[in-house]
Amino acid sequence: MRHLSIVFIFLSFFGYGQSSIRFQETVHRFGDLIENEEVSHTFTFLNQGIDSVGITSVKASCDCVVTAYSREKIAPNTSDSITISFNASNRSGAFHKLIHVVSGENISTALQITGYVINSVKDIISIFPAHYGNLFLPYKLFNMGSIWHHKRVEKEFKIYNNSDSVMTFLMDSSRIPDFIQLRIMPDTLPPKSIGTLLLNYDPVRRADLGFFRDGLDIITTDFEMPLKQISVVATIEEYFEVRSASRGDSVNYPKLELSDENIDFGKSSADHPKFHTLSLYNGGVDVLNIRTIKSNCECVDWDLKKENIPGGDSTILMIKFDPLNRKGRQFKNITLFTNDPLNSTRVISLKAQIP
Question: Domains in the chain, please, with CATH?
Fold first, then answer.
């Protein structure tokens, strides 16, 4: 199979000739699919020739593959696409499907789709280890990762209905934060089948910076657990349009310099809070603004003397660690969000030993 893949790549690269049509990619890997799942992918191509050209035929090596494309010619330096859909019904194991695309120049390019179809209970449980009644998920929570504060982010998560009945998602009755849009396809999921959950997160409406964990209350017709309470986590960071340093602009940027980023409180009695003083210095020219400060523990508090620091000036950040009701080694942190465009998020690590 390794040699066959090499042949596919070789053929698609040379296209059985020098075609004017150049695809951005010729191989797409769908990864793991569940039996009966239908997936699709769009291959985009560009006409790099000097004349208009179009696609005259697209032929797949299997009837499990459906293609959609236009026969209209496209002008030089313009692009078009071919959508390839794969149906995993009644299939199992690895698949490699070849699609021959013939242009008006009578030159063929080979596209390839690959993946693996899962149809065993053992494999399904390994891929969807988080169980909310009969709704199986790949993770215990939906992690949006680090996102910029100024634009929406959408992520796709696979879900699986493990019951012997259809599962309907009653979104009108569900409680979703106003900065999150949730769409489930299909909204009525057949038994023993996979679906897709699209989660759209709007940090503009969230209007804050830092790490956040928010709850979704999703109502379903799952008799075992109708209410699904699932968390969404995200870290929102501020986006800065950094100008080219070659123009000399960057020397004016605010620049946060810390006197310490790793604080060791040492051994601490549970009855006595510990304090540490940090110096925050602006090594730039423009005013440095401390947007906000966040901690990952309610046991950490702070006092900032001033939020706006002129260039060449400094301020004091007093950090308080309260070890009450804690024991053993402690590892906490606080995060500073600033308008330093080259390093806007700074994490200060804290540790202590509580006997």
Answer: 2-118 (2.60.40.10), 121-237 (2.60.40.10), 247-354 (2.60.40.10)
C-alpha to C-alpha distances, 4 to 7, 40, 96, 205, nearest whole angstrom: 5, 23, 10, 50
DSSP assignment of 96-131 equals EEEEEEEETTS-EEEEEEEEEEE-SHHHHHHH--EE
Q: Cα–Cα distance between 199 and 151 in angstroms, integer?
A: 14
Rounded Cα distance between 156 and 194, Å, is 13
CB 203 within 8 A of CB 151: yes
Cα separation, 191 vs 343, in Å, equals 49
Model confidence pLDDT, tens digit, residues 292-343: 999 999 999 999 999 999 999 999 999 999 998 899 999 999 999 999 999 9
Q: Alpha-carbon distance 26 to 10, whole Å?
A: 10
Secondary-structure breakdown of the chain: helix, strand, coil percentages, each rounded to the nearest 5: 10, 55, 35
User: Do 330 and 353 meet the contact criterion of CB atoms below 8 Å apart?
Assistant: yes
pTM for this model (two decimals)? 0.66
Exposure class string for 193-219: b at 16+ Cβ within 10 A, else e: bbbebebebbbeebeebbebeeebebb
